[in-house]
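For reproducibility, we list the full input for the zinc ion complex.
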Amino acid sequence: MTWRPKPPPATELTRPQYEGYACCWCGTSLWQGGLSVGIARGCIGAHVMDVEVYACGWKCPKRPRRPKTSATGREHRASSGGGRSASSP
Ligand SMILES: [Zn+2]
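The corresponding predicted structure, in tokenized form, follows.
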């Protein structure tokens, strides 16, 4: 359960977002401090734009949702009822 949404590309950030003053997803000013959500990556020409970005919190309304992995949604069930015999007296 350590999935975390990836920050947007560095090239799509506004200047406040790029400089860490605004939430990288919803743009809220982080005057109370932000939550580091990783490195936004990107480059313009030869200039690498990688920068650590911040969000207003993990409950940011614009935060990307965790993708559902229904394809691999297999549950490992402990065999239930194993060894239980329906023997009546
Ligand atoms: Zn936000």
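The helical segments are 15-18. The radius of gyration is 22 Å. Both points were considered when choosing residues for closer inspection.
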